[in-house]
From TrEMBL:
Keywords (A to Z) from UniProt: Coiled coil, DNA-binding
InterPro entries: Cro/C1-type_HTH, Lambda_DNA-bd_dom_sf
PROSITE patterns in the cross-refs: HTH_CROC1
SMART domains from the UniProt entry: HTH_XRE
Entry's Gene Ontology molecular function annotations: DNA binding
Descriptive protein name: Helix-turn-helix domain-containing protein
Coiled-coil stretches: 87-114
Positions of the HTH cro/C1-type domain: 20-75
Length: 119
């Protein structure tokens, strides 16, 4: 049985949300920062990124302006199941790298503190 229009719309919303999230993270913005720059709560940004809520054209344009992205970077080529997996894999790798970076920054700060202490 083929996909319905509603199924395709949901898939597109999820994929757009994943792309918004990926671009937001590459730009170094939190959900709260992006939300405040476009006049929304971080919860609303989170709903867009999860595909729970659909992104309207005016909001899409605001997001693109803030993230310095072209709308097609977010809209993409439409629902593509294989692409979902690649985006998720890249996001997981990015999150893992960010986690490791935070640990290294914490260790570096502790080392700097130790070396700064007088003998």
């Amino acid at each position: 049985m083929g996909r319905t229009t509603a199924d395709a719309a949901k898939a597109l919303s999820r994929q757009m949300g994943q792309r918004i999230r990926a671009i937001r993270m590459m730009r170094g913005y939190s959900q709260g920062k992006l939300g405040s720059l476009i006049g929304l709560s971080f919860q609303q940004v989170q709903k867009y990124e999860n595909g729970t809520n659909r992104v309207s054209i005016p909001v899409l344009m605001q997001i693109c302006e803030v993230l310095d992205a072209h709308p097609m970077d977010i809209i993409g080529e439409g629902p593509q199941d294989g692409r979902d997996k690649r985006v998720n894999a890249l996001l997981q790798r990015l999150e893992a790298a960010e986690s490791k970076l935070k640990i290294l920054q914490s260790k570096l700060a502790r080392m700097q503190k130790i070396f700064a202490e007088p003998d």
